[in-house]
Amino acid sequence: MTALQPARHDPPGDGPERRPLGGGRAEHAARVPFPVVDEISRHCLRADEPETVHIEVHLPGRVDHARLRDAFHQALAGHPRILMRQEPVRWWHRRYTWQLTTTPDVDPVAFPPPGPDALARARERALADCPPLDASPPVRLEVIERVEHDGPSDAGDGYGEGPGNGASSGGGGGTVLLITLHHTALDGPACLRVLATAAELYGGADNSPAPPPVRSPGRLTHEPPPPGATPGPLRRLSRPARIAAHHTAAGGGTGTGRAGSDTAGPAGSAGNGMLIVELPVPDRPPRAGGRAPYTVNDQLLVATFLMVARWNREHGHAPGPERATDAPVLVTMPVDDRPRGAAMPIGNGTRLVSVGFGPEEHREAGLLTSDPPDPGAMDRLLRRTAARTRALKSASGAQLGLSGTVLTTPVLPVGIRGAVTRALRSAAAPWTSTTLLSNIGRIPYPLDFGDAGRPTAVWFSAPARMPRGLTVTTASAGGRIQLALRWSHALLDDAAGARLGDLFASSLAATAWTPPSARPAPPPRSAPPEAPRDEGKAR
After folding, report:
1. Are residues 56 and 162 in the same domain?
2. What pLDDT, on a 0 to 100 scale, did the predictor assign at position 432?
3. Region for 174 from its dihedrals, namely left if φ exceeds 0, alpha if ψ lies in -120 to 50, beta otherwise
């Protein structure tokens, strides 16, 4: 059974001190059994692949340290499900249990010394250092004050010089709120809800979520769905495609190109690398009947598929219509149906579905992976993807399916269930989806921090465990898409991550709708040559 992380009040390296508070160790703390997602994650923890979620909020102004600490502590108290620690467990126990505390065991708010590399160091800690599960709360907030020469953009410090980057607030001044949370305990949207409460307490402004956009029911047209629009039994018939591994021949260094991370470690080492960039939102066709034929989420899914297909083609794994055994690309997509108000359930609240790209896409592989892709093939792919995602989102089901429910039924001790879960996970690795796209969408809260302002950019990144080894996380703020690519160093080095960032940016741009009047005219077709006349033939 995986050993519980020891509580560390002093993170390694040059990290800020986490001060023990000691106020939450009540003798009769409320107890909550681990839900399904929490237990599966707990069984599969690995020291070399930290299960962290990183959230990065860029504010144009400076925050008052004491006010922010007080507001964050009050927000934690207002969402008591986040104030928890894992109860000590033995292998023969039937459940893992959360102990809810009334106050934090350690102060989760820290203010690292400002400096040119302060943000880079904080990002390094976010990828490598999980908040411990046995100290409440399993969340860390670091407040980084930017200096005038931090870099050319908000996404600087070696991470943000990616394709299309253009963070809006420049490189001088401002504050970055960098939150690291243990994914075994909660997910990014839940932590964002807590941060919205802290913003309201800090700035005094209403931070209620904006109402979701109104969507007209029913289909856009009365036409039948395009071929391959249903999810299909791709997962049962063949193993999903894997992302081709790539490391430089030298096998060392910190990567080259636009990833440029001086904190990710040598290629092939443990842990994750990350690239964060800002991209324009691709255009979509005008709405008809109050509904667009596809959403930005569908465009992000298609861009993820094209990124994988083009990357594998560059590495000698090109699909083609002549190969009936081509592995489908499966993109796992979290779906979050929770309300965004103050009563939003805190924890891991998303369910996972997988969007398959299979025979139809392989038949048009040449058209889709060309530079630029064929507009007709792209339009067909986007509409098929929209039909698939509508079907998947409308279906109900358990968060991790029937298998997750069975594995977490408290019949056997946790030690035995953990060993079975890890063995099954290893055996099922070839059938794991190709990659994961987590699209947070529009940030629903103003996140108004008063004199410090509203965010100019918000990034999320999800852990990149093998065998997937790559996650794509997106959010939308200020009319731009904030993209975070995160990869396992067991699969890719930083130069490979930079190349994938280029491929995603160009693939997303290729999904943009172009009015028919602005499309280039097709080249004229030449007339077929006349057959030679046989003068000697009898007439």
Report:
1. yes
2. 93
3. left
Task: Give the integer Cα–Cα distance in Å for 381 and 109.
Answer: 46
Q: Looking at the domain assignment, is residue 208 inside a domain? A: no
> Into how many domains does the chain fold?
2
pLDDT at 348: 94
Q: Label the pairing between strands 175-182 and 52-59.
A: antiparallel
SS3 state at 177: strand
pTM comes to: 0.84
**pLDDT, tens digit, for every residue of 382-396?**
999 999 999 988 877
Q: Which residues of 234-255 are buried (b: 16+ CB within 10 A; e: fewer)?
A: bbeeebbbbbbebbbeeeeebb
Task: Mark whether 166 and 310 lie in a shared domain.
Answer: no
Mean of the pLDDT values across residues 7-11? 39
Interval 66-75 mean pLDDT: 98
Q: Provide the β-strand partners of residue 333.
A: 353
The average pLDDT across 412-425 equals 94
Residue 478 lies inside a defined structural domain of this protein? yes
**Parent domain of 35:** 30-203
C-alpha–C-alpha distance, residues 534 and 479, integer Å: 68
CB 333 within 8 A of CB 423: no
Are both 242 and 196 inside the same structural domain? Answer: no
Q: Which of 441, 226, 228 minimizes the C-alpha distance to 329? A: 228
Tell me what pLDDT residue 167 has: 40
Q: Counting beta carbons within 10 angstroms of the beta carbon of residue 455, is it exposed (0 to 12), middle (13 to 18) or buried (19 or more)?
A: buried
Are 268 and 171 in a shared domain? no
Residue 294 within a domain:
yes
More confident call, 351 vs 157: 351
Please tell me whether residues 195 and 244 are part of one structural domain. Answer: no
Say if residue 491's pLDDT is above 70.
yes
Q: What DSSP line would sit under 236-302, residue for residue?
A: HHSPPP-PPPB--TT--SS--TT---SSS-STT-SSEEEEEEEEEPPP-PPPBTTB-SS-HHHHHHH
Tell me the percentage of the chain whose pLDDT exceeds 70. 76
> Which residues does residue 459 pair with via DSSP β-bridges, in sequence order?
56
- 362 and 304 fall within a common domain: yes
Integer Cα distance of 165 and 26 in angstroms? 48
Bridge partners, residue 410, by sequence? none
491 C-beta neighbours (distance < 10 Å), count = 22
The answer to whether the beta carbons of residues 329 and 356 sit under 8 Å apart is yes
- Tokens, residue 133: 């599960």
